[in-house]
Amino acid sequence: MNPQHFELLEEARRALPDGFKVELSGDILVMQASPSAVHQLNLSKVRRQFDVHTPTGYIDTGNSDLESPQTAKVRNPDLTYLPEDAMTTTASSVAADLALIAVEVVSPSNPENDWVGKLRDYPLMGIPLYLIVDARQKTVTLFSEVENGRYRLREDANFGETVHIPEPFGFVLDTSDLRPYS
Questions:
Q1: In the beta sheet, which residues pair with residue 65?
Q2: Longest dimension (CA), the chain
Q3: Which of 11-15, 122-126, 153-157 has the lowest mean pLDDT?
Q4: Residue 99 within any structural domain of the chain
Q5: 2 domain-assigned
Q6: How many domains does the chain have?
Q7: How far is 161 from 139, CA to CA, in rounded Å?
């Protein structure tokens, strides 16, 4: 994408009102309303498990814009882990390829954004792990091992089962406390 075109879209994205999560995928702006309480509960339960296994020098962050100008993409995962040093900037975004993982809790109103758009974008942006918590289907899916702009491996589990989270976290995610959407 032409860098000037990317800058114009990025400027439009930043000018939108607060209260919306706004992402850029190529020449498409993706807007989402604030998440539900169940969404936030599931995210908190996942975050707590990751926090115990976070590598030194990395911090958890939600609603941080991950930018990849070379792919013309800006995505805003529900949860990611970034080097603490990268978070000392006053810029509104951080380089996507610094993220260790992107975690998304699927929105019931726009599941395609997580299952199609972000599944396409995250490996292209250099994010090595992508975890999808889908409270509609009561499933958790981990994508890993980026190769040729795609995730090569996929591990699926139902709520109540476990998912192996590889290094640099290196633990088994327990999904038994996750809640489905009613």
A1: 93
A2: 48
A3: 11-15
A4: yes
A5: no
A6: 1
A7: 9
